[in-house]
Amino acid sequence: MNVATISADARLKQVLWVLVPAISVVVATEFIVIGLLPLIANDLGISLAEAGRLTGLFALSAAVAGPGLTLLGSRWSPRSVLVFTLLLYSVGNTVMASSSNFSVLLTTRIIQGAMLPAFVSVGAAAVASLAMPDQRGRALANANLGFVIGVLVALPAGAALAKWGNWRLPFVLLSLFSLVAAAVTWGRYPNYRVPEIPSIALPLNLLRNALFLGHLLLSVLLFASMFAAYTFLAAWLDGYLNLSGSQIALTLLLFSAIGLMGNSVAARVADRAPVVATVASAAALVVAVNLAGAFHNVLPVIAVLLVIWSVAHTAGVTLSQVRVTMAGGQAPAFAMTMNLSCANLGIAIGAFCGGWAIDRGGVAAIGWVPAIFGALATILCIVLARAGLVRNHRCIE
């Protein structure tokens, strides 16, 4: 290993040590609401589906505004983008903790959502540029650990903290964590520009590439499938299994801890067959969710199915991030932000459709919406394969 390689490896480790916890804080801000939806709905006197807009509109904002803000942020150093976003999130979480006006809360979530793709994308671009070519998938999966931690820890942490006070306490802590993360990022994150090609030509070429667009559409369908159920997991545990508040918090904590295994599984296959593994994880999740509804009165079976659900969910998130970023080739930041936008579009679609189904069929209807989107994702993968797109692209060989 030469000096340049050692230097790049050391730099990569430094970036990961700073980036993973920072991403965790930002992503937790998006998903903390999921574990608080019943409490927010009750406190503000709104329906569960209406409270779900706090998740859906955050995701929709990320989908619509994310790409443009990422391209705008490419004019700044990555450290500046990261610190600015963390400070913005700190202010936003303070508003969430103090306001009772639902319109103000929605506006705050929309602003925060718009900055999420730019934040995660500049970090992914730094990781992709520092990693060796044959280790890029694993490095991106390691960086995605922050995303996974933020998604999985947000649910139990929000539910547990809310038991000590009310649903606002988690946002107070997230505001403080955002400030700490901003200070650490400013002091420890390397202040340099990622060698991303500045021309707009490359991103535009990607958007004309059928394979890349297929990857993006696949992310929309997969995230819609995953989050149609995951958005209402706390409500499902409450209404379907009749668990107490403390039991729900403990179940969500175990769900999150087990889910970390999914990131490890994804890292092992990220450089070899991410599309096949992604579809497999989506299929496992759909089966687990629907069987959990069928066997809700058999606790040992429910426990096994929740383990499968958790591992499959985490693996699907990680594999989708890696899959599209690698497909982006020399424009990893743009590819990542497009994937995050599409993923958040899928989250918004899943949250709205899941809420619609639950409003009409109760929490027992949590499984059929993920099944529909999962089936569409599988069909899309088959179509791409038959067109020769999957077989001829390195990232999914």
From TrEMBL:
Q: What is the lineage of its organism?
A: Bacteria, Pseudomonadati, Pseudomonadota, Gammaproteobacteria, Pseudomonadales
Cellular localization per UniProt: Cell membrane
Natural source organism: Pseudomonas farris
Q: Which residues form the Major facilitator superfamily (MFS) profile domain?
A: 1-389
Q: Where are the transmembrane segments?
A: 15-41, 53-73, 80-98, 110-131, 143-161, 167-189, 210-233, 239-261, 273-292, 298-319, 331-358, 364-385
What keywords tag this UniProt record?
Cell membrane, Membrane, Transmembrane, Transmembrane helix
Stored InterPro entries: MFS, MFS_dom, MFS_Efflux_Transporters
Q: Name one Pfam family in it.
A: MFS_1
Query: Does the record bear Glycoprotein in its keywords?
Result: no
Q: What is this protein called?
A: MFS transporter
Membrane topology of this protein: Multi-pass membrane protein
At the top level of its lineage, which domain of life is listed? Bacteria
